[in-house]
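REVIEWER CHECKLIST
Item 1: Sequence provided? yes
Item 2: Single chain? yes
Item 3: Sequence as submitted:
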Amino acid sequence: MTTYNTVFSFIIKKIINTENNIFFSNYDNKDSVDFIYKSVFLSFDNKYLINGKKIYFYANKFKFLKDAFSCFTIKENKEEELLDYFCKIQRTYHTLNRFVYKYKYKNAKIVVNKDMELNQINEGDKNIICIYQEGVKYLFKLYDILKIINISLSNSYDFFSEKLCIKNPYNNIPLKKNTLYYIHFYLIEHPGLLLKINFIDLFLKFHSCHFNLTNFLSKYEHLLREHTIHNYIKNTVDEDLYKDLLVMIYNFNKNRNENKKIKINREYPKKKILEIFKPYLLLYIKSKYLLIKNVKNKALFDLNRKLSSFQDFNPNFSRKKITYVKNNVNNKVKIVKVIEDYNSNHIQFNKCDNTNFLNNHLTYKYIHYVINNNIFMYDDYSDTDEENSVTNYTDYVDEIDEIDEIDE
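Item 4: Structure as written out by the authors:
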């Protein structure tokens, strides 16, 4: 016997007065409720035994209502009155629920009153969300709870989405759907927050699917893949990104003339080269793993164009420069200082042509990107192929010559 069934049955008894039955000796024929409705609502209390436990036949009250409408005694213009009784019971049930919830909520203790940075927060403060679970309260900064939601929705493995249900990090209990709606209503009531928090997009799209994870993944898998790629570039360790970088440059170089190749000095600081090439690497990963073909081909096209511009701007990028500073001492020329440096001059990634900026809102053209032999050849690499590509390119960069300059 569940609490829900017990309470609902109790309300039925009080409103329909099912205990005043024509078959009982104390039947009062002055009762205002028709016996037909009494008999129908009595069926809600039907139970059966499983392992010695009494189980309600109708675990779902709406299934009960559906069966009641199909009952032959209700067919003759009695559906509307039956529905009125059911709605009255429903209103009473929800009123009691709200009263009990408010009482429990008001008297619940706050067990977490610090944000994720261990700063003290208070219920009622600006942008503070209170989550009521298991009879206690948990306080969150809105920014923190949205970040938890975003991490759950963008979770992936090897660029394949593996959505996680959104949980309270303090007790690992999933958030109820009404809590998710409460967070959404809070955002709608404070529209300024929608502009300030830049990772709110996934949560809003999740709401558009009525917080259904299956529908969310089915409808927005292409966007989730793009979020996964951005997270990969942002969170992956430098060593792995550097290997991806070598594969990218190897692919770019393999069908180009020697004087048009990008050559990276092995001694050039990895951290600095990653800072420069991360935007290019993002395009490269998109060209491999995006799900929409035309967007994927566009990423490959843009990558080829930008890498070509990068090479044309400074073919000697990353080459080492050794400068000898000489001085005349006692009529003898001596080297007093040796300066080692790298050629780090490079084109800006976001440099673009804005000549049509004021008019590009008037017309449009659909561009279909087709990859052919003249545009940056792309192969689907296995793990072994990528390891070989890294090895081949590492051997290749060793051939770079150093440039010596002497300052008099």
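Item 5: Key structural point noted by reviewer: The two ends are 96 Å apart (CA to CA).
Item 6: Recommendation: ____
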